[in-house]
C-alpha cells in the first residue's frame, strides 16, 4: 500500500508527523516511520517524503591548495581557495541506489543566478522564520564553496542544475503542499525556495563534517615536509564519521585533495535526517599506501603552473563495441553512411561535454542519448583514453539499443538502465 493512502489518517495525530526542518512554514509533513532511502522493501509513491531513485547522498569536499599565482597573502589565498583551516564544499549529490546518478533532471527548474536570488526580499525579511538569511547564506557560500576557475557562482549554478534539480523532495510542488501559512503564493517564489534550501542543506551538512578538524585531532595537518599513510588518514576520517568508511582521493602530486561522505536519507531532504553509510566508491583513489602529502594552501608543487583546467578538446568518431556501425550527429546508431565528427570538450567542473554539429549531447530522463542541446543543458560525460577510450555517463559506461539499424534506418541509443536492452555495447571514442 502506498503512503498517500494513509495521508487522511495521519493529518490529525501530530505525533505521526516528522516536523523537523530548518525553516517554517515549510516543515516537511512526512510520517516519522518512513524507511531509510535505498533500504525500503515496499513501494512508496510520495516523492515529497521519500527520495528515489537518488537515495544515496554524497557530501563532497575539496582541499584546493594551489593558487593561481605565487606570492598571495593569507587574505588573498582565502578569497581564492577558502579558509586556510577548512576543506571547501564541492557539492551535495543524489546518487541512485543501484549505482550511477541522474543529472540535469528538469530544465524548467534550472537557474542562471544565485547572487540576486539569495539577496532577494524573500529570504531577507522577518515574515518567515528562516534558519539563515539569504544574505548570510550567500556570505557562507562565498567563503566555503569555491570554484577552480575563479567564478564561484558559476559552480553553484552548475551544481544546482546538475544535482539539485534531481532531488525530488524539494520540488516546488512539495512546498505548495507544506506552505502552511500561505507565505508564498507565487510559483516562481516556490522554485526559488527550492534553490535556497538546496544550498542551505548542503552548507549544513558540510558544517557537521569538518574534515580539517577531524584530521587535525589525529595529528594530520598540512605540512611541506611531513607525509602520512593511507591507513592513518582513513582511520581519522572514519572516526569522525561514526566509524563508517570515508572515500578520499589524492591529486597527481600524491597530495590529499578530496573527501566524500556517503549517506542515506530518511524522509524529505528538508528534514536533514542523513544517516552515514560506508563509501560505495570502488577503485583506486590515486593515494599511495604511504608518503601522502597534505600541503598547506598556497603551496605550488614543482611542475605545476597554477590552478584550473586547460581548454583541451578532442575530435573523433564514435563506434560501438561488438557491432558494426557508428553514431551520427543526432546521437543515433547507423550502419550505412558516414560517421559523424564529435568534439569532446573539457567541462568546467570535471568530465567532458560531447558535441556534434547539431549541438551538445545529453541523456534524457528515459535514458535516450540525444545531441541537440545548448551548452547550458549539456550532460557531463566520462572519458579516459588510457582505459579503452570508452564514453560513460552518470557513472555507467554501458549502453544499449532495442533494435539493429539497417540500410537508412537509425536506432536509438540508450544508457543502460534496470531493464536490459536486446543489444548492449560500449561507445568507443576514436580520435581523428
Strand order of the largest sheet: 16-15-14-13-10-22
- The proportion of residues in beta strands is 15-25%
- Report the end-to-end length measured between terminal Cα atoms: 55 Å
Low-pLDDT runs: 1-21, 305-311
- Quaternary arrangement of the chains shown? single chain
Sheet having the most strands: 6 strands, antiparallel
Structural class: alpha+beta
**What is the CATH-assigned architecture of the largest domain?**
Alpha-Beta Complex
What is the CATH third-level topology name of the largest domain? Answer: Ribonuclease Rh, Chain A
Query: Count of helices?
Result: 9
CATH homologous superfamily placement of the largest domain: Ribonuclease T2-like
The radius of gyration computed from the alpha-carbon positions, rounded to a whole number of angstroms, is 23 Å
Q: What is the domain tally?
A: 2
- Give the mean pLDDT: 86
Instruction: Find the count of extended strands (DSSP E, 2+ residues).
Output: 22
Please bin the fraction of helical residues: 10-25%
What's the shape? globular
The CATH class of the largest domain is: Alpha Beta
Subcellular location: Cytoplasm; Vacuole lumen
GO biological process, one term: apoptotic process
GO molecular function, one term: hydrolase activity
Keywords: Cytoplasm, Disulfide bond, Endonuclease, Glycoprotein, Hydrolase, Lyase, Nuclease, Signal, Vacuole
Amino acid at each position: 500500500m502506498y503512503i498517500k493512502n494513509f495521508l487522511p489518517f495521519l493529518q490529525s495525530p501530530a505525533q505521526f508527523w516528522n516536523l523537523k526542518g530548518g525553516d517554517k512554514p515549510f516543515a516537511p509533513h512526512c510520517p516519522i516511520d518512513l524507511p531509510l532511502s535505498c533500504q525500503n522493501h515496499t513501494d512508496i509513491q510520495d516523492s515529497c517524503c521519500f527520495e528515489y531513485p537518488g537515495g544515496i547522498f554524497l557530501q563532497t569536499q575539496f582541499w584546493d591548495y594551489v593558487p593561481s599565482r605565487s606570492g598571495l597573502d593569507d587574505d588573498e589565498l582565502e578569497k581564492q581557495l577558502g579558509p586556510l583551516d577548512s576543506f571547501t564544499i564541492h557539492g551535495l549529490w543524489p546518487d541512485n541506489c543501484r549505482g550511477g546518478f541522474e543529472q540535469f533532471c528538469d530544465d524548467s527548474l534550472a537557474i542562471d543566478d544565485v547572487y540576486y536570488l539569495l539577496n532577494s526580499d524573500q529570504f531577507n525579511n522577518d515574515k518567515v522564520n528562516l534558519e539563515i538569511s539569504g544574505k548570510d547564506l550567500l556570505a557562507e557560500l562565498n567563503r566555503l564553496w569555491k570554484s577552480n576557475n575563479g567564478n564561484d557562482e558559476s559552480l553553484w549554478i552548475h551544481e544546482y542544475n546538475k544535482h539539485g534539480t534531481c532531488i525530488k523532495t524539494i520540488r516546488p510542488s512539495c512546498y505548495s503542499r507544506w506552505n502552511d501559512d500561505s507565505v508564498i503564493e507565487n510559483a516562481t517564489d516556490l522554485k526559488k525556495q527550492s534553490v535556497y534550501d538546496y544550498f542551505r542543506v548542503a552548507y549544513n551538512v558540510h558544517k557537521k563534517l569538518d574534515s580539517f578538524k577531524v584530521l587535525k585531532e589525529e595529528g594530520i595537518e598540512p605540512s611541506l615536509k611531513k607525509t602520512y599513510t593511507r591507513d592513518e588518514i582513513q582511520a581519522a576520517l572514519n572516526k569522525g564519521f561514526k566509524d563508517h568508511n570515508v572515500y578520499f582521493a589524492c591529486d597527481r602530486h600524491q597530495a590529499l585533495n578530496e573527501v566524500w561522505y556517503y549517506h542515506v536519507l530518511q524522509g524529505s531532504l528538508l528534514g536533514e535526517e542523513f544517516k552515514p553509510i560506508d563509501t560505495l566508491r570502488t577503485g583506486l583513489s590515486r593515494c599511495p599506501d604511504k608518503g601522502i602529502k597534505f600541503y598547506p594552501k598556497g603551496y605550488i608543487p614543482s611542475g605545476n603552473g597554477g590552478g584550473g583546467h586547460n581548454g583541451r578538446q578532442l575530435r573523433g568518431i564514435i563506434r560501438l563495441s561488438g557491432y558494426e556501425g557508428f553514431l551520427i550527429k543526432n546521437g543515433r546508431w547507423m550502419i550505412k553512411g558516414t560517421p559523424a565528427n564529435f568534439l569532446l570538450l573539457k567541462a568546467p567542473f570535471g568530465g567532458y561535454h560531447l558535441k556534434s554539429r547539431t549541438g551538445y549531447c545529453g541523456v534524457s530522463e528515459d535514458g535516450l542519448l540525444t545531441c541537440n542541446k545548448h551548452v547550458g543543458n549539456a550532460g557531463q560525460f566520462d572519458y579516459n583514453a588510457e582505459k579503452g577510450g570508452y564514453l560513460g555517463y552518470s557513472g555507467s559506461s554501458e549502453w544499449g539499443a532495442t533494435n539493429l539499424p539497417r540500410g537508412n534506418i537509425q536506432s536509438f541509443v540508450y544508457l543502460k538502465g534496470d531493464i536490459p536492452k536486446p543489444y548492449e555495447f560500449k561507445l568507443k571514442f576514436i580520435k581523428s
